[in-house]
Amino acid sequence: MEKQNQQAQIKNKKINRPRRRGDGSLFLTIFAVLFIAMMARSFIGGTSAPQVMPNGQPTPPPVELTFSDVLRRAPEIKTMEIRGNDASGTLNDGTPYTATITYDPELLSKIAENGATVSINTSKTWVDYLGTWVPILMGLFFIWWLFRGLKGGAGGISRSLAQQNPTKITTGKTKTTFKDVAGIDSEKQELMEIVDFLKNKEKFKDVGARVPRGILLSGEPGTGKTLLARAIAGEANVPFFAASGSDFSGIIVGLGVAKIKEIFDMAKRHAPCILFIDEIDAIGQRRSTHSYNDQDREQTLNQLLIEMDGFSNDTGIIVIGATNRADMLDPALLRPGRFDRQVYIELPDLAGRREILDLYATKVKIAPDVNLQDLARGTTGFSGADLENLLNEAALLAVRNNRTEIAPADVEEARDKILMGPRKVRKMRPEDIKLTAYHEAGHAFVSVMYADVTDPIHKATIIPRGRALGMVQHLPIDDKVSMTIAEVRANLAVALAGRSAEEIFFGSDKITTGAESDIAMATRLARYSITTAGLSRKIGLAAINQVNNFGNRTALENASEKTAEMVDAEVREWLDAAHDDATKLLSKNKDTVRKLAEELLARETLTGAEIKEIVMGASKKTTSQKKSDKARKNAKSK
User: Fold this and answer.
1) What is the 3-state secondary structure (H, E, C) of 44-82?
2) Mind telling me the catalytic residues?
3) Strand order in the sheet with 317-323
4) Tens-digit pLDDT profile for residues 16-71
5) Predicted structure pTM score
6) Any bridge partners for residue 63, and if so which?
């Protein structure tokens, strides 16, 4: 009951951590006192009571004399009072003066010989004593502060500095639950055991099961790692502590170690709880024997390893780490007993994207005719954050167009903007626009011809976006995990159909660089199919490209010079065959392709249904015309 009351007190409130009164404030106070004292000294020294001349007139303001003026006008001086290097007094005519002089006995005797009254003031005021002793006291206080930190043991100074620079920790209980997380059902199932443990600890103790002390969430950016960690805490109704890995690094050596101790001490005081460290690779990178510049980071990592392995199983502290680069983490951090379980959060599939869109669609106003299923089909590779950003961009476009809800046109524009970049307003030559229309018409026509093995065409446009002058989009029916060799060759033909259209309608001497991205994509697909997927009979089943530790692929890692030449020749042969295939299809249907291009020039954008209507309508007309011609020939022969 007492623990429940303690948890209720910290609900939705920032947890108060014990802090000492900052020593830095004392330094600032002393500096302020010294500054005020100096100002008071100058003010007191620069003011005096007003005096009256013998004739009853008020005394004029004092004149400032240089040292040479004092030497030259020595007979005119009546009185002189010296205090350090400052001199003041009156002249024979009663005019006051001030001067800065150098102490010289001969000068003083010369002035005294002329009948002047010379006095030297050697007394000290409280301001003088303050200016003398305050720096000494500050130095002694700083030395005492250093020895106090050293007396506190190793890292005592760092702990004091850590209190002056507290870690940015999000505390309290979160209202996020698994209902707020969509599209990653398998990952949520993996983490339900943690929630069950935090709710029903005794059930696991009876069996003797040890719940993972730490969970590492890894995956692409925007897949929901932080959201999932908050949902675990919200589902279990326990305190949630969140910090970033970069919060434990600083320019002061030992500061990271002190902050690691600080956050773990805080978590222990409020167990059971969730301790979440985002971007943990900032402090958990693999240690190296060759590095001498990252000693502080490695000490911070060592302290994290000690803290994660130091608390017992029944404290109820679950450490959750999140990173995009799990391959960079130190093996000691990933061993059982620290991060026992690693959960990789993949990009959502078609069903997951639809769930995410349904979730975020409840937070914005969407028109009934917006097809979220088609939107999910057209956002392959989007993360949850990307989908939320897409709907937000669509909402901004709706506001810009003075609409009260998101229309299908807003969704299309938002998706194109994210995929290809914002719409470009650029001046293009008429011949460039025409060539772009025929280029995209070539892609669109061959896509329809291979509709049985490729993804259905969604639209074709010649509106420039980003670096692209036009594009043809496809909407996959479902998520594919592999491709057949027929699909590979069909996609190669579709990719190179734009260049084929340029050659057919404008001539081989008028081809442009507009097919650059198409050729690059086709080359990557052909090389992957030949060297990694084993789809080439000439190269066989040898995997030539091997993935290295950082996930990149080298050109030909496991190939001899002869094999490399064979691979290059095979890639070129596949691309040439795809180009010839596209050229034959376009040459046989030049009228249909020309009609597609003319429609693009007139309307700028054609939907998939409109493209199919043009292509299939022309093919039906051609078939009926062939039948009628055949009937005429038969009639003539009879």
Assistant:
1) HHHCCCCCECCCCCECCCCEEECHHHHHHCHHHEEEEEE
2) 440
3) 240-244, 273-278, 317-323, 214-219, 341-345
4) 444 444 455 655 666 666 566 556 555 554 444 445 455 555 566 777 777 777 77
5) 0.65
6) 97
